[in-house]
Amino acid sequence: MSLEVYLLYLGVLAAFFATPPDTSQLLIISNSLRHGMRKSLATVAGDLTANSIQMTLAAFGLTAIVAANANALWVIKWAGVAYLLWIGLRLMLSKGAADTPQAAAPGRLFRQGFVTSSANPYAVVFFGALFPQFIDPSLPILPQLLILGVTYLVVDGAVLLLWGWAAQRTLGRLKALTGVWINRISGGLMIGAALLLGLKDIERADQK
């Protein structure tokens, strides 16, 4: 892979992430508001772990299988939508403090990030379509896939951290908010993430 191709890849990623916050980004914003940026690193780790698995599936040629199995895609996606809606509604109806040891447990936050990212099964198809555009078939494939995959994870992680940092900074300026209102805002973000995930099928249908 030449330097020119790699820089083009970075440009594509920059354009891809230069959009309003998506499902995973809304989740990190919500968790950063409730628990702080440091604890929300577990959410970022969960998201990137799911992305790593999706990249691996794409690299091993399972993209066609995933794309063809519409029933599996439907179940995975709507299970994720239901999960996010459940979290969001529970937060909005909560009358307790914004942060508790159980709610802020790293395993719990990691699971939220992992499930939310995994609930977008089209990510496998996305990676399967993206990576071949930047691979030189005359060179070893695996090192190129590693470079593309690691670069994506670094950029994605940086974007998530930036959203989380911005959310925490915003919270610092709104210290008058009570725990109940923080929960309501966070719950609204969760529900928004669920709606974004649910609309993916509508967007795909419009493109057909």
TrEMBL record:
Parts of the chain that traverse the membrane: 6-29, 41-66, 114-135, 141-165, 177-199
Main localization (coarse): membrane
Keyword Hydrolase among UniProt keywords: no
Pfam families in alphabetical order: LysE
Subcellular location: Cell membrane
PANTHER family listed in its UniProt record: ARGININE EXPORTER PROTEIN ARGO, ARGININE EXPORTER PROTEIN ARGO-RELATED
Protein name listed in UniProt: LysE family translocator
